[in-house]
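Here we describe the complex-level prediction in full. Unlike the single-chain runs in Section 2.1, the three entities below were treated as one system.
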Amino acid sequence: MKNKAKSNGLFKRIVGNQMFIPVLAILILVIVNLVKDPSFFVVTWGLNNDGFPVLSGSLISILDNGSELAILAIGMTLVTAASGGQDISVGATIAVAGSAMLRVLCGGNARPETTQAPVIVAFLVACLVGMLCGAFNGALVSVFKIQPMVATLILFTAGRSIAAWINNNELPIVPDPKFAWFAGCIPGIPIPTSVFIAIACIIVIMLVLKFTNLGLYTQAVGINESSSRLNGINPTFIKFLSFVILGLCVAVAALIKVSRISTINYSVIAKDIEMDAILAVALGGNALSGGKFNMWASILGAYIIQFLTTTLYRFKVDSEARPAYKAVVVILLVVSSAPVVRNYFSQLAKQFSSPKKEVA
Amino acid sequence: MKKRVLAMIMASAMVLGLAGCGGSAGSTESAAPAQTETKTEEAAPAGGDLIKVGIINNDPNESGYRTANDKDLKAMFNEANGFDAKFAYSMKNDEQISAAQGFITDGVDYLLLSAADTAGWDSVLQDAQKNGVKVILFDRTIDADPSLYEASIVSDMAKEGQTAVDWLAGQNLSEYNVIHIQGHMGSAAQQGRSGALDAKVAAEANWNIVAQQTADWNAENAQQIVQSVIDAKTPFNVIYAENDDMAKGAVAALDAAGISHGVGKDVVVMGFDCNKWALEELLKQNWNYDGQCNPFQASYISDIIKTLEGGGSISEKTIIMDEKGFDASTITQEDVDNYGI
Amino acid sequence: MNENRILEMRGIDKTFPGVRALQGVDFSLNAGEIHALMGENGAGKSTLIKVLTGVYTKDGGTISLKDTGEVQIHSPQDAQKFGISTVYQEITLCPNLTVAENMYIGRGEGSLTNWKKMNADAAKLLASLDIPAKATQQLASCSIAVQQMVAIARAVDMECKVLILDEPTSSLDEQEVEKLFGLMRDLKARGVGIIFVTHFLDQVYEVCDKITVLRDGQLVGEYEIKDLPRVQLVAKMLGKEMDDLSDIKGEQGGYHGDDAGEDVFEATGLQSDAGIKPFDFHIRKGEVNGFTGLLGSGRSECVRAIFGADRVLQGTTKMHGKPVKIAKPVDAMKNGIAYLPEDRKVDGIVGDLSVRDNIILALQVLTGFFKPFSKAQANAFADEYIKKLNIKTASADTPIKSLSGGNQQKVILARWLLMHPEYLILDEPTRGIDVGTKVDIQKLVLELASEGMSVTFISSETDEMLRTCSRLVVMRDRKVVGELSGEDLTQNKIMSTIAGGESKA
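The structure predicted for the assembly as a whole is:
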């Protein structure tokens, strides 16, 4: 009896946990793929066209292509928590940061013979540009108290034109094949570098959350700004900081995106990725109105979106129908991870378990 | 040669100035005699009298095609060539329409238009006609009465697709297993380029579509689509990408999986738009085919303006530009330099 | 059912995770009766009210109404339909809408709104109740007291049979309370049954006919008002005989260190942008003093200026005689000043965060951004103060918003005590909390002072301040008008000082 009560409690705890729905979603995707085509999970060892060994398979593809989204989800989670709003300019600022990176790498020349600056310099410049964009958004939101969506609408609209302007409308191509390593595989290492970059970002943010009060401050500001101020926190700075951190995430994502094709297309690079990043936060069961957040859940949310995309490609769902499929799945996930529904589930779990208890 | 063109343009500019003085009532016919009279005498000192053109285009950042298109227009329509040109860029129809109204109010002589959407242009073009502004469409057609515009200079996307498919058929592969990467669904380029392939696949028994997905003109999406086919271990030997970016993304996926591509290799790679870097891939025999989508409409437009200014009329309203398809085995450096955008 | 009975609740059960909030509670109400619902915080008053109004769904028991018999109430809309209206303790209106909109929104009388008629009706009702607000005024621009009265006006206008007033008087001054009581008696004469939830014993004995007492989620009993003297009522609420309230000051010895006479904090010509006149202020080590005055006289604004919560315009501040600059709250905290704000919900709690995070928040900020407490450390802090202040919570992980008002207040108090401040400012710490906790807090204040902490204590209840403070700064119209200590600390003297020079004491 006691044991049973304990297991009931455990069941309820699991169902009530924020990670429950994201993990359940992954499990369902895994099961659907297992039933339809178990080879989805086969990871094979092969050689790429440069003759180096690589691992390939759908799982690797998910980890690889989900990297940018996972990195963006980190920053978006903080912005959402602190400001109670979302940054819709991340796609456009990826174009800006990526363009700045190419400008430095190619020196303003569309077809340089060699790279004009070390990648690290170009990357640092991109970080600076990304953080500047973040600072711009952050200042509008925190100092001028503009709604985040409205404030970031400015760069959302202008960002891609700014990106084009940085390179005089040219589409520079990085001549050094090594540049492709940041998204592809470094010779000898069979897993795409983007996966390692994403892992590094996740480790960094987890360390930051563990060894600083960023998490506590961000949540406190998002839940009750007035009270946070009276407890000595500077809400303006915390909101500003969250946007700058997102800017940094944008720069890292831009590195991967640009590296994937060694060039840039201002109008389509990272198109609509802001919506996916916001979705990742929501799928993780985090309130889009700000406050408490769970970073792991957001990151998991990002990979769920990629898992879903890859699955839809894999099933060769019709191009026209793909957005509809995605919408249906997203609606199901978002609705089921909404607090109202979660509460209902735990109620259900309780009702389900209580009659049994009485019998016992 | 160049000088003569210049002189002619100057002359027409002059004439136009006079016609303008004559008031807006003058129709094409009434302006024409005036021109024949003034043409020779007053050609040289034509100073400030330029042909006023208002150019409405899509955002040059939209694609490499658009960038090249904008550059080409700017190189043609400037003061040195006798034009007073104003540019307006937008990818939204309503913004384009209000820009057109602005140009009409400004009293331009010609309105050059690459419309974002096919619909909604009737009333503003009627306005233009009333005010004696002549309209020339380039790159994109619209759903309006042909009497509202002088000419329409377009690419025939269906023909581009047909040329490409014919080339592919000419490769005489025993079996065609095609990964078809589509552009933004519903766009003219996607419809034209998809149409020819779809028809061929329906007609021939040894042509199969392995995967048909839209990548929205985006290289990374294309990469993911090809990756998913590779991951599924489905055999294929042709990649038909509806633009160069997507072909590039597809090739990145092939490279990562160790699948050879290009002339005489396992997979045939086809792209469109003739970006310079894409033609270079052809030259290196990494890709097999690239279909041109000609962005250089400026010279066609200027010819039409010259004809109209010279009192001539346009016999064929819809002018379809010459477009080539390049084969990796025959392409030369000269082609790359001449046709690369 | 008794003919006069309009509401009967039988055996109501309600369980929350970790808490049995109600266990078989009975409650009944007659027409034309004002019925007090009494109990400490966490006794289940609010839960019972929320079950009755459909905010919570009951786990067991029945609710019957006179006309309809047994009913199921699933939502506040249901409750309204059955003629049950509520005015809650915390204002639940929409501050960004107008007064009239607040009075009529969500009433479900067709989807079309006749704005003109709505504003006219609202104006008429406001006038008849003597509420100093315009129908078209934005609610946020009214004082808290007026907002509360608008909420009551809204409920009154809904033709209710059962009116629930959940702590309606906690932010009203005496005149406003009298006006409300007049209104309640009116409604009573019209046959409305009123459930009155309050912590003010005086008010219960002034207007109520019956009292139902709850304790720990269970029914203690239902009594006629004349059969239950105050002392017994308090005893029933606490479940024990209560300490004599007036004696607590004597129990504590006061602070007797060598530095007892020294000023800990001193302000000269201090003024903030909240509209107070520049004022001088000082507090000695181990002293308890207070700001008194009518609601809106500037008491809170003074302490907010000291803490740097509002923007300081001018003035100098010193700690232990040394000049310090306090421009924002964190400066004050670094100088050992703590401030428990007046509005717990808006300025105090961080609702979704756990009790633990709420407790450690201030000290954590003071410790620094790069030095977060370990989990064990944070738990130790939380457990220490949960025990010390007897905070009733399921665990340290429980979100603070699910605690009762009094326990939330204790958590905020714990937050500041954990900082071990030299100077503690408590702005209305006992507002809206039960008698037991009130006494606990008063005792605690004196205890802290005897250990050498300086405390500024603000309360609307003068007797509470008289019990705790040894010196009172009196305010009128946003200006300091006097200071009382020693023999002068009497109700009469305070009243006359507040009232002004004409009435000599």
